[in-house]
From TrEMBL:
Pfam family, one: PK_Tyr_Ser-Thr
Lineage: Eukaryota, Viridiplantae, Streptophyta, Embryophyta, Tracheophyta
Protein name in the entry: Protein kinase domain-containing protein
Protein's organism: Heracleum sosnowskyi
Highest taxon in the source lineage: Eukaryota
Record-annotated Protein kinase domain positions: 1-166
Molecular function terms, GO-annotated: ATP binding; protein kinase activity
Length: 172
């Protein structure tokens, strides 16, 4: 899981950085790679961190958009990225039977939609004085997790929003 490595818990600024870099990696696959590549299996364990805590998207499918009927596939990648954002915010796994409900999306989205996103924040990490960037990150996750794929933001918009959030930064 992205949130902790061994006994080290990632702070909120690192989590924001990882969110942006993972989105940039997905944007590269969708918008820059020629032909475009759909990941097909984006999840937290497929976002690797190097020794500088830089995120790299890994384990993506080798089929290009042109090689398959990919209607909705990029949108599915965006949905899966929204799930990863919930993991980053909450410290929970995408599916964890120790919680009710076990699915992170079912658990977190109602709080975000009721304006209570702070209720899902990882309590194992000290919250910053200004949680506004984390609330904005939760809003991005909610947009990525729209049920209707046509209502989801594109990955380029998500990258722009995350870049703005990272620039705001956090006061810890």
């Amino acid at each position: 899981m992205i949130i902790s490595t061994g006994n080290f818990l990632l702070n909120w600024n690192l989590r924001l950085k990882i969110s942006l870099q993972a989105a940039e990696g997905l944007e590269y696959l969708h918008k820059v790679a020629c032909p475009p590549i759909v990941h097909h299996n984006l999840k937290a364990s497929n976002i690797l961190l190097d020794s500088n805590w830089d995120a790299r998207v890994s384990d993506f499918g080798l089929l290009s958009v042109n090689d398959m009927d990919s209607a909705g596939s990029m949108e599915t990648d965006v949905y899966n990225f929204g799930t990863v954002l919930l993991e980053i915010l909450s410290g929970r796994k995408a599916h964890d039977s120790e919680y009710a409900p076990p699915d992170i999306v079912e658990w977190a989205l109602p709080s975000i939609r009721r304006g209570r996103a702070a209720a899902i924040f990882d309590r194992n990490a000290a919250l910053p004085r200004n949680v506004e960037p984390l609330l904005k990150l939760a809003d991005v996750a909610e947009i990525a997790l729209k049920e209707n794929p046509n209502e989801r933001a594109g990955i380029t918009d998500i990258v722009l929003w995350l870049d703005q959030i990272v620039k705001i930064g956090l006061t810890l």
